[in-house]
Here is the input.
Amino acid sequence: MPTFRIDDRELTVPEGTTVLQAALANGVEIPHYCYHPGLSIAGNCRICLVEIEKFPKPAIACNTVVSEGMVVHADGPGAAKLRRRVMEYLLANHPLDCPICDQAGECKLQDYAYRFGQPTTRFVEEKEHGPKRRELGPHVVFDWERCIKCTRCIRFCEEVPKTGELAMLLRGVREEIGVFPGKPLDNPYSGNVVDLCPVGALTLREFRFRSRVWFLADVPSVCPGCARGCSTRLGTFRNEIYRITPRANQAVNRWWICDEGRLWGERLQAA
Here is the structure.
């Protein structure tokens, strides 16, 4: 049980806990995109950079294990400068289409850009453009220009349903999330990649452009689709269900929900 200090707090955590896990478990906010508690650690978005005393350079909090006596600066001017630099990089080619993006209102890129980003941009060149409205499967639509390459969706398909349809294709600035030829994203849990996406790169075909998220009331519920009883949230507006998303419940469905449960409201409306 190592004891360490993060900003002005002293914490004791189980052996093997990362700085980010310790911070989140104790109410200390460190921004993150690629990290998710239900997935393996990739450490590729870099927004969780922190300063650690006696470390020769900044470290990513999601993949740095706490050690005895460690001193972490997660909320100082140094960390703030690092986050501004990362945000500037992530926004260099990101389209300014928040008004028409389904993720607007619950977008981590939007939130962090407001809180940690620069007030203006130094990027005056033409942004890179790529495929939009690409259907990866029957339910998931991909927008290349919005993707920040966090790989949450790829890791989910490899680790949860273990179907592995998604991969990172091409190189450099042209990298894109894609499916293998003849193998669409059609596993029984495919809709979860939309929930996992921290930006608006992956959207659910059945929900696209139906409602702005700030109009929706999230009502805790239980999926009636089968005997498992997965915990869900009903996104409702004017007594109509617009979407169904999973509600974390480690004893039943963890963070996920199957597509049958996600879309049972669509089937009721069709009937």
